[in-house]
Specification:
heterodimer, A: about 325 residues, alpha+beta, Cyclophilin, nine-stranded mixed beta sheet, six-stranded antiparallel beta sheet, 5 helices, about 15% helix, elongated, B: about 240 residues, Gyrase A, domain 2, 2 domains, seven-stranded mixed beta sheet
Chain lengths: ~325, ~240
């Protein structure tokens, strides 16, 4: 990225550039674009659940799109900044405040050393993202800063943030003024901000194991509502609804699985795999969520009802390319 | 397509699944050989936009970038490849020798496996370490190799109740397969031995010792030999094998 911050131009090791965690929130982790190209070794992808929000947050502060950010869930953290910084908050509405004064999301914000940023309970959506200029500085594990909770690696010691943690960030030093000027008016146009409150069907590419299901079961899958159960996390959403019956066995020989794939075990209750899912699974897969709809899914909560709508692979790929074109325009815009 | 059992299917918007309609639901080496050959042919062809090729027991997942490649374009390229020349022999795949201490505290299930199979413990060790296996899939936990196929005399169902904690490096068998636990975890396989090799290491590149298609062979060692099999010793062995 031509206006991306170059890590080698920043000062490190001053020990003065960090965020201190006052309150960690319900589940706050460091995430980035995830461990791509490591699945053949059995490594989970991980990374931000809502990649759209992560990418926009990073662009708003001049970072590469998949730089490490904080992802917070349902209730956000309270953080104190030890240094001047430029930040952006995206994702669900967490009513952010700096030193008690409300601040907007989806735009870049200068923040002064000593300030406290508090993020509340989410009023819409489920997950929020905080990007800081230069990214959260944690050592990469297998090429990524993402926290993989089940494996206990990545991010900050492989775990969620807790009170009194210090997260190293880039010390912007003398670059700060220039950066602040350049980013000062950077915001996402209101019409581009996703409406997480809107209820709409999730687009799903049918298959590959369509033949494993009775025709009436498939009909039921496309026409019923499925509630996200409380036993849902970054690995997957367990759904409850009408039973989706198999013709025969629900089990198959294990095959590659990925975030968005919808497994149906023998009990007929679908599971939508999410960012931290394993790389192989032995249940029939009824369909896979279109990549462009994963961010919407990431912003749904337990108790929400999902409806699925079939979409062709050609249509899903057209939507994917449209979204990449959108990001290309954002990157090209000096100020948006 | 020469292989009539082959089915190409869209799997979401960025994965193409090639599925061999297996006659029964058990994995076998004959099916895997076809999968491995096609996997290597796809990798060798370096189709722009193909990111990973993921073999499993009766399927091959091709992970690609929809910005660079549509499903139809990729399906056409793969169909052309399958009609092309033969891929190299399986012997070209790396062979990894796994030094293994069998029985005792290292393989707590060896006595029960021997009993169930109607063999002595030594016979179990001889059968397990006496043949070359192929990694049919890498999954479950980071870097767990599912390898086959096991001598028919050692084929047992998984344990009725899984062990709560199996130590990393445990060599185990279940059904037609043998595997090695990369991380401490619960598990339902019968643990018959342990290897000092580090199967999975976050700090190593690549992190996992195995990829699907690799060959492996277990070699019985004594407890006193464990120290010798450091990582360095392993890499020397691997270098010589090439």
């Amino acid at each position: 990225m031509k206006d991306g911050l170059r890590a080698d131009r920043m000062r490190f090791g001053s020990g003065q550039a960090y965020l201190e965690v006052d309150r960690p929130g319900l589940l706050t982790t460091v995430q980035d674009g995830g461990r791509k190209n490591k699945q053949v070794y059995g490594v989970s992808l991980s990374g931000a659940m809502d990649r759209f929000a992560m990418r926009v947050a990073n662009l708003l502060v001049g970072n590469p799109e998949e730089a490490p950010v904080l992802e917070f869930t349902f209730t956000g953290p309270t953080l104190r900044f030890a240094c001047d910084q430029v930040i952006a908050i995206t994702g669900g509405d967490f009513t952010p405040m700096v030193d008690g004064r409300p601040v907007p999301q989806w735009q870049s914000l200068p923040i002064a050393a000593g300030s406290e940023l508090s993020l509340g309970r989410c009023r819409s959506g489920a997950r929020g993202y905080l990007a800081v200029a230069g990214g959260i500085q944690v050592p990469p594990v297998m090429g990524s800063a993402s926290t993989f909770l089940r494996g206990g690696y990545g991010g900050l010691e492989g775990r969620p943030l807790k009170a009194a943690d210090r997260l190293p960030v880039a010390d912007l030093g003398p670059m700060l003024n220039r950066l602040e000027r350049r980013l000062a008016r950077r915001r996402l146009a209101p019409w581009m901000i996703p409406d997480y409150g809107q209820l709409r069907p999730v687009r799903v590419i049918p298959g590959p194991h369509q033949e494993a299901f009775l025709p009436e079961a498939l009909e039921r899958f496309w026409t019923s509502g499925f509630r996200i159960s409380p036993a849902s996390d970054r690995m997957g959403y367990r759904l409850s609804g009408p039973v989706i019956k198999h013709r025969g066995r629900a089990d198959i020989l294990s095959t590659y699985i990925f975030p968005g794939a919808i497994q149906v075990p023998a009990d007929g209750q679908p599971i939508v795999l999410m960012a931290d899912c394993q790389v192989t699974g032995g249940y029939t897969v009824i369909g896979a969520v279109a990549g462009v709809d994963l961010p919407y899914l990431a912003q749904r909560k337990p108790g929400d009802v999902l409806h699925f709508r079939p979409v062709s692979v050609a249509e899903a790929q057209r939507l994917w390319r449209d979204q990449e074109a959108f990001f290309k325009r954002l990157r090209a815009a000096a100020c948006f | 397509m020469r292989d009539t059992g082959l089915k190409l299917l869209p799997y979401g918007d960025h994965v193409l699944l090639i599925w061999w309609a297996a006659r029964d639901s058990a994995p076998d080496e004959a099916t895997f050989q076809k999968i491995d050959a096609l996997a290597r042919r796809i990798r060798a062809s370096r189709i722009p936009g193909v990111m990973q090729v993921f073999p499993a027991f009766d399927s091959l997942a091709v992970i690609y970038d929809p910005v660079r490649l549509t499903y139809d374009e990729l399906a056409k390229r793969i169909a052309e490849l399958d009609g092309g020349e033969e891929a190299g022999e399986a012997e070209e795949q790396p062979l990894i020798e796994v030094p293994t201490v069998y029985g005792g505290e290292y393989g707590p299930d060896l006595p029960s496996v021997a009993r169930a199979a109607g063999l002595t413990e030594d016979e179990v060790v001889r059968l397990h370490s006496g043949k070359e296996y192929r990694v049919w899939m890498v999954g479950f936990l980071s870097g767990f190799p599912y390898a086959g196929q096991l001598d028919a005399r050692l084929v047992l169902p998984r344990k009725a109740s899984p062990s709560l904690s199996i130590r990393p490096g445990s060599v185990a068998i279940a059904e037609k397969m043998t595997g090695i636990y990369p991380l401490a975890s619960p598990g339902g396989w019968h643990v018959i031995g342990w290897t000092p090799l580090t199967i999975f290491d976050l700090k190593r590149e690549p992190p996992g010792l195995f990829q699907a298609g690799y060959r492996l062979r277990f070699r019985a060692i004594r407890e006193s030999e464990v120290a010798f099999y450091s990582e360095a010793a392993f890499h020397r062995e691997k270098g010589r094998g090439k």
